[in-house]
């Protein structure tokens, strides 16, 4: 376990570090835990993923960029923030597999291959090449933010929330809604669970490999 996951981490969105410092002083933590500010001014940070080199990649719920946070001196504070993809629509979800970075928009998922090589190069003047992994997702923005995760089977999983608050017809017209899907090798979706209004997080049991998910509703 590296240093990042030894700590509870705060991402500052709109408030100043001085305000968070006051909040931190009032927090009561279990024995053995520590809390500190790891990164500031990261717009609406949502899902995070860590590469083998310890770079933290951050998706944004309401922003338009995916960022890389670098703690170069191992003091548990990211001094460097690098934009690795921009001009996106709610790039909420991020996931890593075999050195490749995957990130979501409302209607598609992208891949940047060998992201650690790009980060090691230090040539950040140009964004790395991103490629479409799948564009088979609906474009409805209501509950359109996508969480990403790789299952024990090696496939990427992505949810599609219901495109409304209380409704039935849109779900009948398009079976992709209110479901969790597995992305197949050809980019098509295979439904794993339906009747899921809007999951904002899921994971697999390390022994049984059963899928557990939250449902916002």
Distance between the termini: 34 Å
Q: Strand arrangement, largest sheet?
A: 3-4-5-6
Structural class by helix and strand composition:
mainly beta
Kindly state the percentage of residues in helix.
Answer: 10-25%
- The 3D shape can be described as globular
Q: How many DSSP helices?
A: 3
Proportion of residues in β-strands: 25-35%
**Extended strand count:** 16
**Averaging pLDDT over every residue, what do you get?**
88
Oligomer state of the chains in this structure: single chain
Largest sheet: 4 strands, antiparallel
Element string (H = helix, E = strand): EHEEEEEEEEHEEEHEEEE
User: From the alpha-carbon coordinates, what is the Rg to the nearest angstrom?
Assistant: 18 Å
Low-confidence stretches: 1-15
Task: Please tell me about this protein's structure.
It is a single chain. It is globular, with a radius of gyration of 18 Å. It has three helices and 16 strands. It has helices spanning 17-26, 115-121, 169-173; strands spanning 8-11, 35-39, 45-50, 56-60, 66-70, 80-85, 94-97, 100-104, 109-112, 131-134, 149-150, 156-160, 179-183, 189-194, 202-204, 211-213. By secondary structure, the chain is mainly β.
Please describe the structure with a list of short key phrases separated by commas or semicolons.
217 residues; 4-stranded antiparallel beta sheet; 3 helices; 10% helix; 33% strand
What is the strand and helix layout of this fold?
Elements (H helix, E strand, L loop, with lengths): L7 E4 L5 H10 L8 E5 L5 E6 L5 E5 L5 E5 L9 E6 L8 E4 L2 E5 L4 E4 L2 H7 L9 E4 L14 E2 L5 E5 L8 H5 L5 E5 L5 E6 L7 E3 L6 E3 L4
Parallel strand pairs: 1-2
Antiparallel strand pairs: 3-4, 4-5, 5-6, 7-8, 8-9, 9-10, 11-12, 12-13, 13-14, 15-16
């Amino acid at each position: 376990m590296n240093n990042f996951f030894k700590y509870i981490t705060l991402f500052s969105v709109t408030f100043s570090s001085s305000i968070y410092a006051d909040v931190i002083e009032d927090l009561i933590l279990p024995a053995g835990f520590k809390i500190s500010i790891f990164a500031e001014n990261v717009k609406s940070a949502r899902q995070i993923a860590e590469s083998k080199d310890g770079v933290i990649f951050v998706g944004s719920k309401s922003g338009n960029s995916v960022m890389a946070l670098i703690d170069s001196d191992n003091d548990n504070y990211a001094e460097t923030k690098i934009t690795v993809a921009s001009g996106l629509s709610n790039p909420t979800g991020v996931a890593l597999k075999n050195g490749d970075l995957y990130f979501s928009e409302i209607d598609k998922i992208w891949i940047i291959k060998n992201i650690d090589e790009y980060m090691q190069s230090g040539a950040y003047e140009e964004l790395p090449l991103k490629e479409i992994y799948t564009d088979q997702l609906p474009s409805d923005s209501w509950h359109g933010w996508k969480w990403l995760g790789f299952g024990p089977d090696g496939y990427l999983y992505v949810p599609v929330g219901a495109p409304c608050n209380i409704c039935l017809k849109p779900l009948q017209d398009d079976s992709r809604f209110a479901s969790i899907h597995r992305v197949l090798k050809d980019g098509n979706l295979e439904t794993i669970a339906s009747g899921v209004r809007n999951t904002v997080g899921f994971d697999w049991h390390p022994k049984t490999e059963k899928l557990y998910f939250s449902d916002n509703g």
